[in-house]
């Protein structure tokens, strides 16, 4: 392992992660009945307090002084009648996703099976990947697997469910003016393309061929064609008599419709010798039979009324007319375009087993989610066992369908009866082991939330029996809830004896022990998996019990620095209120509400907006101009949470400002809160006052959900409508997100220069200058790059220090580069990346210290682990090098970490481990060239070994 390893690592991108759960703790001794609910009393006391607030400053050394204790504790009692957080009521939430004991081996296994399965099975394997990635820190992995599953889908049923799910991931139902059946422009989500059976993975990203012809023109043209070829009396050689009507037909044409008709008209039956056949008792009208005669010659039903086509499909079923049925099925499916039509026609489809018609109706229901979930018919069909059986008879009851529906239901209300019934249908549809594991585990979690502990225990045990070891946590928790604490403890002990201990195992066992043993387990949980928020919260609340409020906040800061979640922000705000630091408390509540606008504080007793209203009089009031100044200050010092709070304040006064919503989305993406970021983008799009602005926000939505070409098209359309900073910036950003050759780089430079010529604020111009500087560096135009970075710094774009440091380093001015990064460290509130980057510009010992600090501030940054591992490998400490990477992979299975560990295994001759890590890495990114080459080499060596 030579210097090239470090050079390669420094060019790699770094991914940050965040995921949070909502966990509360209240004082169980707080009064709850005397004067209304706890929330109402808390509001009343806050209102009383706001009349004559105490403005004492808290002691910041982590201990309450004797004088402060008396006053502040009294304040807490008045301000927080709910009481301070209590340790005994803290509890980590059991994750809803599958969590393998050996995640790397699971990734490798599903990659192998995906690569080696027949084409008809690939979609199912990608759906399995979706399930595995559902709990990942990076939601893009889930969406990528979802797109791959749609790409390789064969059956119409799979296509409509997957395309609808992709639409739901973008929450297009929240985009004002967007129809559920509106085509996105590509086959992958086109409603019409989804109704075409067959395997054609190369065409899914092609522009869809939606008919642009008015329906009336087609009907007129076809009517003329039908009129020209209608049957005359001379042409017909037989008649069907229905009532008083006589329908003249060509015997051979009718016989060609099916074998029963052929037997009737040319077989041994008496009808074969008659010119007129009485057809009155066959439940078809004269008009319907006349349509059947026309179809026997034209093979089309497009000119008929819906009622006639419904008669034809019934006739086709009775007489086994497959071609007629297919034509009717396809025609009726093409008419389904809204929920009312779908509700009307799906019953006919189910009765007549019309596969395409039911598919089209299902597609409308699914593309209308979540609103369609509240229609009584849809829920009766989807939730009941009888409805599932009816769908199964038509080929439309699948694990995939109920998996999608249940995930939507859980987002709406995890404990509802609808959620339970959909999960039960998902369990009924489960065939493969992983499907059963997921269904049983999620039923266990939901039942636990509903406090139905016996049922929860039963479902968790079923999941364990199906092979999901993580569900043992649910079994233990269910036992604990039923009073069997020691049994739960023994179960976790046994689990840790049988498997390699993981952070979540120690976290769970800590619930069932006390004192030092509990703290040892919590500390072990953090050491093995620093992304688990419960141990930080527990330690913080323990410090609150000891009046160490400052230390409690510092403990929470450790995780909030790299993983922002509503529950941690709530707890920090709670403690800040106890400290009477209302500015900090208000900041955290505003940031929390940006992540989750409907969040309920104090164990669900108070809405966050109410607390904002009550805290606001206790802090300094800002005008809108003050807010802009505050936003610039916080943005320039890389205080993302503070920036979110300021924008939340500004939006309270001006909720229709799409520009602010867009700024909000950028901050949320920087904090890796992608779900909240997408919501802000959708609101920005809905509040846009011009067409060109709306197109830009739609472009960002498409880009952030993996639709790069569509995002470019939106940017170009916006530029055509009006030249603007954001349109040029979007186009440049999307184009730069790939390997750029010299021509492409020059084009991106021109786009960014055009953006800078357009009006914008300093926040965005600073970002554009920073990006322009990066492209100049890549083109080896260092002086131009330095000029861009200096201009960005002049308008307080602090992150430009990093770019300027890079320029100095490339010019050989190592000390100047180091100084620039030191300036960034001093200015930035979130400075883990600055420590990481500064390590490149100092000697080995200082680099190690900087990287150690970077890991301490943000354990999700992977470069420090890779650097340390490579250094150990260069010192021929192979075992220690692998352990360094394994430590990080345990809580963040990252592509670069896996690739480097595979390379280390390869260098030591451990081919089996090399292959496994390569397969796991390729599951994360199947296009990673270096890993593909290493994988092929390792496989060749494995095949050469004697059997």
Automatic annotation (TrEMBL):
Pathway: Protein modification; protein ubiquitination
Domain of life of the source: Eukaryota
Region of interest (Disordered), ranges: 53-72
Compositionally biased tracts (Polar residues): 59-72
InterPro entries referenced in this protein's UniProt entry, alphabetically: BTB/POZ_dom, ETO1-like, SKP1/BTB/POZ_sf, TPR-like_helical_dom_sf, TPR_rpt
Domain BTB as annotated: residue spans: 236-336
GO terms, biological process: negative regulation of ethylene-activated signaling pathway
A Pfam family hit: TPR_8
PANTHER family linked to this entry: ETHYLENE-OVERPRODUCTION PROTEIN 1, ETO1-RELATED
Name of this chain's protein: BTB domain-containing protein
């Amino acid at each position: 392992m030579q210097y090239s390893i470090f050079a390669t690592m420094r060019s790699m991108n770094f991914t940050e992660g965040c995921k949070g759960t909502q966990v509360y703790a209240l004082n169980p001794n707080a009064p709850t009945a005397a004067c209304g609910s706890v929330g109402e009393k808390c509001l009343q006391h806050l209102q009383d307090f706001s009349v004559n607030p105490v403005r004492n400053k808290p002691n910041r050394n982590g201990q309450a002084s004797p004088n402060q204790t008396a006053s502040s504790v009294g304040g807490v009692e008045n301000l927080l009648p709910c009481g301070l957080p209590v340790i005994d009521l803290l509890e980590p939430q059991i994750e809803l996703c599958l969590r393998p004991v050996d995640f790397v081996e699971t990734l490798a296994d599903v990659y192998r099976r995906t690569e080696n399965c027949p084409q008809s099975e690939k979609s199912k394997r990608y759906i399995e990947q979706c399930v595995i990635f559902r709990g990942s820190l990076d939601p893009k992995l889930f969406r990528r697997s979802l797109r791959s599953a749609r790409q390789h889908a064969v059956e119409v049923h799979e296509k409509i469910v997957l395309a609808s799910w992709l639409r739901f991931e973008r929450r297009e139902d929240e985009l004002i003016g967007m129809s559920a059946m509106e085509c996105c422009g590509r086959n992958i989500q086109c409603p019409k393309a989804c109704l075409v059976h067959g395997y054609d993975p190369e065409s899914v990203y092609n522009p869809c061929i939606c008919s642009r012809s008015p329906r009336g023109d087609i009907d007129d043209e076809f009517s003329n064609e039908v009129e020209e070829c209608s049957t005359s009396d001379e042409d017909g050689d037989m008649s069907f008599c229905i009532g008083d009507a006589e329908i003249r037909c060509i015997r051979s044409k009718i016989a060609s419709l099916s074998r029963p008709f052929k037997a009737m008209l040319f077989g041994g039956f008496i009808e074969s010798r008659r010119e007129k056949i009485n057809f009155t008792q066959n439940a078809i009208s004269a008009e319907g039979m006349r349509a059947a005669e026309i179809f026997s010659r034209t093979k089309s039903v497009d000119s008929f009324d819906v009622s006639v086509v419904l008669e034809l499909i019934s006739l086709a079923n009775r007489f086994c007319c497959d071609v007629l049925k297919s034509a009717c099925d396809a025609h009726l499916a093409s008419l389904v375009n809204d929920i009312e039509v779908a509700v009307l026609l799906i019953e006919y489809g189910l009765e007549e087993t019309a596969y395409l018609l039911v598919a089209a109706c299902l597609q409308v229901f699914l593309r209308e989610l979540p609103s369609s979930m509240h229609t009584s018919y849809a829920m009766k069909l989807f939730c009941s066992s009888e409805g599932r059986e009816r769908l199964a008879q038509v080929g439309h009851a699948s694990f995939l369908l109920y998996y999608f529906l249940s995930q939507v239901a859980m987002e709406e209300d995890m404990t509802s009866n609808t959620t339970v019934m959909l999960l039960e249908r998902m369990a009924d549809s489960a065939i493969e082991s992983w499907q059963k594991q997921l269904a049983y585990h999620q039923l266990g979690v939901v039942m636990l939330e509903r406090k139905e502990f016996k049922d929860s225990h039963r479902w968790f045990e079923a999941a364990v029996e199906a092979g999901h070891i993580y569900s043992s946590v649910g079994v233990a928790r269910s036992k604990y809830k039923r009073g069997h604490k020691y049994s739960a403890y023994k179960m976790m002990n046994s689990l840790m004896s049988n498997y390699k201990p993981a952070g979540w195992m120690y976290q769970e066992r800590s619930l069932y022990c006390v004192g030092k043993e509990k703290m040892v387990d919590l500390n072990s949980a953090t050491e093995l998996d620093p992304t688990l928020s419960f141990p930080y919260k527990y330690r913080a609340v323990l410090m609150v019990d000891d009046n160490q409020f400052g230390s409690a906040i510092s403990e929470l800061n450790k995780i909030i620095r790299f993983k922002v979640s509503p529950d941690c922000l709530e707890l920090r705000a709670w403690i800040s209120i106890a400290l009477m630091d209302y500015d900090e408390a208000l900041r955290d509540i505003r940031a929390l509400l940006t992540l989750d606008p409907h969040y309920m504080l104090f164990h669900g007793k108070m809405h966050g907006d109410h607390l904002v209203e009550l805290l606001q009089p206790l802090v300094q009031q800002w005008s809108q101009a003050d807010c802009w100044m505050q936003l610039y200050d916080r943005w320039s010092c890389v205080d993302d949470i503070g920036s979110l709070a300021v924008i939340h304040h500004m939006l309270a006064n001006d909720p229709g400002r799409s520009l602010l919503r867009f700024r909000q989305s950028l901050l949320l993406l920087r904090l890796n809160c992608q779900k909240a970021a997408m919501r802000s983008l959708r609101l920005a799009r809905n509040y846009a006052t011009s067409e060109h602005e709306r197109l830009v926000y739609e472009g960002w939505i498409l880009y952030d959900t993996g639709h790069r070409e569509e995002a470019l098209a939106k940017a170009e359309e916006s530029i055509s409508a009006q030249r603007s900073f954001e349109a040029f910036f979007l186009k440049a950003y999307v184009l730069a997100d790939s390997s750029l050759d010299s021509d492409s780089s020059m084009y991106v430079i021109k786009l960014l220069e055009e953006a800078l010529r357009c009006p914008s604020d300093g926040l965005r111009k600073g970002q554009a200058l920073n990006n322009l500087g990066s492209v100049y560096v890549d083109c080896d135009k260092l002086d131009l790059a330095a000029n861009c970075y200096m201009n960005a710094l002049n308008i307080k774009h602090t992150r430009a220090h990093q770019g300027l440091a890079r320029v100095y380093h490339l010019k050989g001015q190592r000390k100047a580069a180091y100084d620039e990064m030191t300036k960034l460290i001093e200015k930035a509130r979130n400075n883990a990346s600055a420590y990481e980057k500064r390590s490149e510009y100092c000697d080995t010992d200082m680099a190690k210290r900087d990287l150690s600090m970077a890991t301490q501030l943000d354990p999700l940054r992977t470069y420090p682990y890779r650097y340390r591992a490579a250094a150990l490998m260069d010192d021929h400490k192979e075992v220690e090098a692998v352990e360094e990477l394994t430590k990080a992979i345990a809580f963040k299975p990252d592509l670069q970490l896996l690739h480097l560990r595979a390379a280390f295994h390869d260098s030591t001759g451990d081919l089996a481990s090399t292959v496994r890590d390569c397969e796991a890495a390729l599951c994360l990114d199947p296009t990673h060239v270096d890993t593909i080459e290493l994988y092929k080499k390792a496989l060749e060596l494995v095949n050469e070994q004697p059997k």
